[in-house]
């Protein structure tokens, strides 16, 4: 057995490149991520022990939108260190006109789970959450998927 040290990166393939590019160029720097690559087909951001690439999709799929319940990615969730950061993200999203699925609210998925759920211009679901303490790693914690996880 080995122990991983996190996820090195996630690459999202997007249609509507121009709109998605503008969206992520605003969002990811707000998260404190620095753009380390900027090309015609891809851009790459690093920060907070996280890396996210945004890649232009194959032209055959340019008119498709993200479907959360398809095979593959369901959503991407960024963790923050303070509950107030979730509220700050929500305010930022409102300021840039993002589609907000639900504003800041608590959930039963882990003790103290608090998050905002939103979409990029093609419907890719993104979340920012805060979980206090050890979260699901606490000795008495239990995962509770209660309700609709969309």
Write the layout of secondary structure elements.
Blueprint: E1 10-14, H1 17-30, E2 34-38, E3 42-47, E4 50-56, E5 76-79, H2 83-96, E6 99-106, E7 114-119, E8 125-130
Helix pairs in contact: 1-2
What does this structure look like?
The chain is an alpha/beta fold and 150 residues long. The protein has 2 domains: 1-59, 2,3-Dihydroxybiphenyl 1,2-Dioxygenase, domain 1 (Roll), CATH 3.10.180; 74-150, 2,3-Dihydroxybiphenyl 1,2-Dioxygenase, domain 1. It is built from 2 helices and 8 strands, in the order βαββββαβββ. It has helices spanning 17-30, 83-96, and strands at 10-14, 34-38, 42-47, 50-56, 76-79, 99-106, 114-119, 125-130. The strands form 2 sheets. The protein has a 4-stranded mixed sheet with strand order 1-4-3-2, with helices on one face. Strands 5-8-7-6 form a 4-stranded mixed sheet, covered by helices on one side. Helix 1 packs antiparallel against helix 2. It is globular. The mean pLDDT is 91.
């Amino acid at each position: 057995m080995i122990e991983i040290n996190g996820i090195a990166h996630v690459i999202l393939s997007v249609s509507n490149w121009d709109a998605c590019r503008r969206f992520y160029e605003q969002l990811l720097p707000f998260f404190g991520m620095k753009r380390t690559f900027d090309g015609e087909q891809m851009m790459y951001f690093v920060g907070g022990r996280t890396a996210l690439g945004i890649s232009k999709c194959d032209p055959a799929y340019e008119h498709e939108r993200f479907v959360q319940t398809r095979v593959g990615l369901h959503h991407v969730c960024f963790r923050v260190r303070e509950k107030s950061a979730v509220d700050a993200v929500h305010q930022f999203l409102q300021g840039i006109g993002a589609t907000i699925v639900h504003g800041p609210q608590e959930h039963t998925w882990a003790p103290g789970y608090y998050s905002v759920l939103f979409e990029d211009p093609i419907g890719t679901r993104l979340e920012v959450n805060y979980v206090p303490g050890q979260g699901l790693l606490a000795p008495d914690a239990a995962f509770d998927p209660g309700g609709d996880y969309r």
